[in-house]
Amino acid sequence: MNGREMPVTVDVASLLAVENVSLSFGGVKALSDVSFDIRRGEIRAIIGPNGAGKTSMLNCINGFYHPTQGSITFNGERRRRMRPSAAAAGGIARTFQNVALFKGMSTLDNIMTGRSLKMHSGFFWQLLRHGPALKEETAHRRVVEDIIDFLEIQHIRRIPVGKLPYGLQKRVELGRALAMEPQLLLLDEPMAGMNLEEKEDMSRFILDVNQHFGTTIALIEHDMGVVMDLSDRVVVLEYGRKIADGTPQEVKRDERVVAAYLGLAHEGDQA
Amino acid sequence: MNMLYSIFVEPFVLMGSAPDLLIQTLWEGLVAGVLYALIALGFVLIFKASGVFNFAQGIMVVFAALTLVGFHEMGVPALLALILTIGVMFVLAVAVERVVLRPLVNQPDAILLMATFGLTYFLIGFGELIFGGSPKQMITRELYLPQGSTDLDLLGGLVRFQHIDIAAAVIASLIIAILAVFFSKTRIGRALRAVADSHKAALSVGISLGQIWVIVWFAAGIVALVAGIMWGARSDVSFALQIVALKALPVLILGGLTSIPGAIVGGLIIGVSEKLGEFYWGSLVGGGIETWLAYIIALLFLLYRPQGLFGDKIIERI
Predict the structure, then answer these.
(1) What angle do CA B236, B36, B235 make, to 5 degrees?
(2) What are the residues whose beta carbons fall under 8 Å from the beta carbon of A121, sequence distance 6 or more?
(3) Residue B9, by phi and psi: left (phi above 0), alpha (psi -120 to 50) or beta?
């Protein structure tokens, strides 16, 4: 539907494998026994009604939550507990459902924070802002300027992001995640609260990121049209359980999905 | 009538007729102000990065100065003692992160504030246990800080500049300038501001909260050490210095809790108005207004401009 062909020679080994993951908070089960994988280079959608555990799943993947049971294998490395900074260092970047930006800082500075892990000059050089620290700053600044060009946000480079409209904030947040040059990009409702034009822009950016940089993407989205257009495969959650997994067409035909999700699609659209 | 005269006219006549005295007073006010600003900066650093109002900042000033002098009394050469003290402040920062901040992550601000009260009393007790409670002399000469004074012939009178005051002003300004650039232009500085804005977003880009907290507490410790050395050199090193350090509170109310420029301007305003008030108006109420004038100014600000001169929001949670 999006006119892309999956290259036949692509390495289909999973970049990420979620195995039998359960997560509970006290007596509340957010996820139970969920397994799925994400292949290198694909766009994987995670869908489901409100409260299905989609965001909890992302939080497990990037280390905000630790699964009560089960394991997550990323890049061949199996783990149960991982700190968010370790996940970030391993190449997992993400955006948030309700935009988590550094509101007092400019667009440029926000995106620069995405380079944090790639900058290594020592504390004292930075204190003096001299020598290696300055050289490093310049090099990373260049990468960030490229991202700003790519996302077409040159005009808001110096503006504190708290002052920007929501759609642009979402774009800056994507920019910050891209600055990490992630292997796996987690997008939590990248188009929530956007108008049609903004949604089209965002879809284009997501596809471009996937195709040109080869970034693997996992996204949560309520807009079914977007999901069907963008994703290669879809996993469907309901009440913390996986109820379907497959290509958009397969999932669309699945009776349980129709009953659980598509019947409720109008509710999600309000998000 | 007489009263009004001595409030609104006499002081200004005096300022005009003896400008050298005015300059002397202003200078002393500025020096005190720069040091207040330095102490306030310690509060701002920690508040910006962790949202914690660190009540222990005042005692950290005393503790740092005591440690320095204490090491020297044990026979450690002054410069080595300085380095060791910096090490102690680093250990303190790590310990605070591990023992206080990490277990209390995501707790309400009031709980963290109370934790810093606990830290205050711990540092007082620990300091007294190790170094004793009696006042000590700052090792000014051993640290190669200048002593003595220069008298300048200005505007028809001699104005005295203590060398240690000049050094204090220069060093404090230098530290403030370095910190300001550090905060706005470097990776760690950006990370500090990022953590201040959103913990979860900071985590998602790989910034380690623990590391940032150690850095800010260490920076606040260094600032406290410098403030302690300078104040200690002007009076002596004792737990009474804590009272002076608490002058940072009115400074923060003036400048706003989150603003570095605010801390500087607030410090200067408080320092200068204290000295001017004491010198020109103090005799009206029998002197000693230096100790409370700052709090009156702060009170007025709380009534009419609670967010301070530069603060970005009203301080609602402490």
Answers:
(1) 10
(2) A131, A132, A133, A136, B187
(3) alpha
**Third-level CATH fold of A1-91+182-271:** Rossmann fold (3.40.50)
A117, A121, A133 member nearest B206 (Cβ): A117
CB contact under 8 A, B208 and A64: no
Provide the residue type at B207 as one letter.
I
Q: What is the DSSP letter of B259?
A: -
Residues of B in contact with A117 (CB under 8 A): 205-206
| C-alpha to C-alpha distance for B80 and B71, rounded to whole angstroms | 9
Task: Identify whether the C-beta of residue B55 lies closer than 8 Å to the C-beta of residue B220.
Answer: no
pLDDT, block means (10 residues), chain A with 271 residues: 42 80 88 93 91 91 90 85 86 90 89 84 62 80 91 91 90 93 93 88 93 91 87 92 91 83 51 40
Contact across the interface for A129 and B185, Cβ inside 8 Å: yes
**A52 backbone dihedrals φ, ψ, rounded to 5°:** -80, -15
Question: What percent of chain B has pLDDT above 90?
Answer: 24
CA-based nearest distance A10→chain B, Å: 28
For B179, nearest residue in chain A (alpha carbons): A127
* Distance in angstroms between the alpha carbons of the first and the last residue of chain A: 25
Tell me the two tokens of residue A230: 């963008």
Span B184-211, pLDDT tens digits: 778 888 888 888 788 888 888 888 888 8
Q: Which amino acid is at B67?
A: T
What distances in angstroms separate CA B142 from CA A88, B30, B73, B99, one per listed residue? 48, 26, 12, 35
Q: Do A129 and B203 touch (CB under 8 A)?
A: no
Cβ-Cβ contacts under 8 Å, A60 against chain B: none
Instruction: Please give the Cα distance from A174 to A164 (Å, whole number).
Output: 14
C-alpha to C-alpha distance for B3 and B278, rounded to whole angstroms? 17
C-alpha to C-alpha distance for B259 and A230, rounded to whole angstroms: 45
Q: Where in chain A is the domain with CATH 3.40.50.300?
A: 1-91+182-271
Q: Domain locations in chain B?
A: 28-247
A96: nearest Cα among B221, B204, B118: B204
> What pLDDT is attached to residue B311?
62
CB atoms within 10 A of CB A204: 11
pLDDT in the model for residue B176: 83
The token pair at A158 is 């110096």
- Among A109, A112, A116, the residue with its CB nearest the CB of B206 is A116
B148's tokens: 């003595």
Tens digit of each residue's pLDDT (9 = 90 or more) over B245-271 = 788 889 988 887 777 888 889 999 999
B208 contacts chain A (CB < 8 A): yes
Q: Which of B133-147, B210-224, B228-242, B302-316 has the highest mean pLDDT?
A: B210-224
Looking at chain B, which residue has its C-alpha nearest residue A177? B205
Q: Shortest CB distance from B200 goes to which of A85, A100, A123?
A: A100
Per-residue model confidence (pLDDT) at position A270:
43
Q: What is the DSSP letter of A160?
A: B
Q: What is the ipTM of this complex?
A: 0.77
pLDDT tens digits for range B47-85 = 877 778 888 998 999 999 999 999 999 888 989 999 999
